[in-house]
Amino acid sequence: MLSMKTESVTLTNQELANAMTSPASIFDFPLEVVACPGLSREQKIDILKRWELDARALQRATDENMGGGEPPLLDEVNRALMMLDPQNTVRDGFGSAPTKI
Questions:
Q1: Are 80 and 48 in contact, with CB atoms under 8 Å apart?
Q2: Which of 24, 46, 62, 97 could be joined to 67 by an S-S link, Cβ 3.0–4.6 Å?
Q3: Residue pair 93/53 in contact by the 8 Å Cβ criterion
């Protein structure tokens, strides 16, 4: 069973807003986003893309010896995104519509 930092299965509006800006404040692992029944596919992708941006920033900081926090979850985020979007149709831009024809 996944252990979200929130006890409810569906997110409140505040939790959803927090998840959209800081996914790790609501979810412990990227796969919890995929498994959350209260989110649409598009919301899940947007949350994971935010997490991807955060993980990339943390990776850059670590590469520049400025790390000092949790390890980046970039691989896990990418696996979760692949589960939701195996054709990579919406990962060309944050929250963007599919660009492939």
A1: yes
A2: 62
A3: no
- This prediction has a pTM of 0.74
Q: To 10 degrees, what angle do helices 41-63 and 74-84 make?
A: 160
3 domain-assigned: no
Average pLDDT over residues 8-33: 92
Q: Which domain holds residue 19?
A: 13-84
Note whether residue 39 is domain-resident. Answer: yes
Q: Which burial class, exposed, middle or buried, applies to 100 when counting CB atoms under 10 A from its CB (0-12, 13-18, 19+)?
A: exposed
Within a domain: 24: yes
Residue 100 lies in a domain: no
Closest CA to 48 of 63, 64, 29, 69: 29
**What is the C-alpha separation between 33 and 76, in angstroms, rounded?**
11
At 33-50, the pLDDT tens digits run: 999 999 999 999 999 999
